[in-house]
């Protein structure tokens, strides 16, 4: 195993010709895909990895300067694909990893035959004629809560993020992976995500993109999926799920998994 693979806990499962790469979002790790993976490995080669900063990675490897922008995470993704000698893949990115995949696909369009964006957003802050879902005051309060008492913040944030039953397995899973993160790293990554603005680069994304979004998502208003569809440079398609929460792969896998499998299998009809 190479240095990059070891740092990101890379796992390669299955043996199909088509390569599926799964990128997790903030506050989780590759375990968030555990209900999807069994449906993929019989026909595909599946690559799982942890974003630097996840609780499963070595915090000593986290470079606060490198990961002050999403480009740092995209360079990691490209390094993983290079080390594994991947020539082309379908990339499934949740939340921030949707944009990480978009950036990587601009730098190396040959490596990405398709992007599947789950709960992705190019910008979380509201702007003139743009509804990202948050005002700066909201984010200031969020950052202060994380700084003041990280455990209390997780206890309040996780239920809002997952939605639904307060005693759900999904909530327990998200709480577990959030608590695994070092608080200062979690705060730094949150700053990077919520202050990012990828709107100007969307037109440079030429890979066919399948946009999947919950109808009710605390972090990403449903109108954002239509914004992505209208501004991406390549062909795209949107599917809004009858689900609540930012992590439907945790909270509603029975609904999401057939949808993802269909989007992996089917290309966009032009």
Automatic annotation (TrEMBL):
The keyword DNA-binding does not apply. It comes from the Eukaryota. Residues 19-252 form the AB hydrolase-1 domain. GO terms for molecular function: hydrolase activity. Keywords: Hydrolase. The keyword Hydrolase applies. SUPFAM superfamilies: alpha/beta-Hydrolases (SSF53474). Pfam families: Abhydrolase_1. Belongs to the AB hydrolase superfamily. This is AB hydrolase-1 domain-containing protein.
